[in-house]
Amino acid sequence: MKNLVIEGQSLEWLLVAATDPMLIVDREGHIVLANPALERLFGHRQEALLGQSLEMLVPQRYRDHHGALRSDFFASPRPRAMGAGTELLALHAEGHEFPVEVSLSPLRTAQDMPLVLATIHDISSRRAAEVALQESEARMRAIFETAVDAIITIDERGRLERFNPAAQRLFGYTEQEVAGKNVSILMPEPHRGQHDHYLASYLSTGEKKIIGKGREVEGMRKDGSLFPMDLAVAEMRLGERRMFTGMVRDISDRKLNEEKNRLLLQELSSANEELTNFAYVVSHDLKAPLRGIGSLADWLATDYAEQFNDEGREHMRLLINRVHRMSSLIDGILQYSRVGRVKEALLPVDLNRLLADVVDLLAPPPHIRVTVAPDLPTVVMEPTRIQQVFHNLISNAINYMNKDQGEVEVGVRDAGSHWRFHVRDNGPGIEERHFERIFQLFQTLASRDRVESTGVGLALVKKIVEMYQGEVGVESTMGAGATFWFTLPKMGPRTRI
């Protein structure tokens, strides 16, 4: 750097000591001095800069215009910022461009030669931050403008500042109509009269009632109509200012559905009460005369047995069997109606002990062997319900057995979150087209005069298993037997049905 005397003083010491990039240029645009900070900024060594045109530091497309700006400065020299209001770009030695700000100061040498001192600031970081801020603002503006929920912003005095399109549609006001007005215009009494007091109380005490919590309140539209809404309020600070943003959602449809559900539950409760009364009538008013018919039929069949011919005795047998079937059918209907309505305590049930009791109660005939797998799990259920499930499945396997040596197997396997139980037999099997039908109420495949069945058992099994969030099904090959399976959650039912 050559010594340069400006009005009797050397600037070399000043430029070397300066931390900001600086250079001095003459009227023709030649670089007279450049400090180390400028060398680092542009990537040029000092000897490559001195005497060169200043435009080497300017992108090619701006060089002609830059020369005109320099001429304008020397025509009217005064301290100022270069290119005020425009974006200035500088060119690095490696060819990439970067944004800068330039401050210009006029100088004169001892020989009265006009010069200019340029101080250059790299603003790449600031410009990147500005771009990021602009992008963030654009995203927030897009969210604000397109949000489905109403978004309302107020200041600490409760005055409305922002009112997005969803809020305008919901409340019926334009943003211009509400700007600067108290947010209480969106509230019915008594909330309207209390709002300013609540806001002042919060600002002085910090006690929160809605802010940061959210609650259901009523809103009031421009036409005076009221509607239920969810309101969530968040507080934010912009410097010394405190702002509040409210997110509002119209919950009219939800409230309407809740009312419909309430009425439906009320109807279901009434229906359950009617079902309870029906079960009482069936239990007492139907079974009492049925027992009388059964007793009379037994008396006739016993006391007048010798007076009946073969046909008469067969008719009496059918009568007695059908009375018993009718009694069983009534019991089955009562059991079906109680599932989910009459509740017992949920208890851990040891299936090893329960299956032993079920098999003992059924007392299978000698030609049918019932095998139960060891180490069955313990499940959390109503004991009576799981007993009904196994009783019906094993009973069906026994009743429909058509082999001289019948085999019924009860087992389980681990199915992850569930246990998968099965009752497998080597009986006649079931055609696939009947798989869904057999789980329907009162459906049976065999003649009721050949196999005693009410058609309730499998329907009862399905209802109980599904009540405990399980599944039930059947697999079968004709002539080789059938496998009825069902699942139960290991952790018990998620909710009490």
UniProtKB/TrEMBL annotation:
Pfam hit, one: PAS
MF (Gene Ontology): ATP binding; phosphorelay response regulator activity; phosphorelay sensor kinase activity; protein kinase activator activity
Name of the protein this chain belongs to: Sensor protein FixL
Annotated GO biological process: osmosensory signaling via phosphorelay pathway; regulation of DNA-templated transcription
Domain named PAS: residues: 7-60, 136-189
Highest taxon, organism lineage: Bacteria
PAC domain span: 84-135, 213-263
CDD domains in UniProt: HisKA (cd00082), PAS (cd00130)
Membrane-topology descriptor: Multi-pass membrane protein
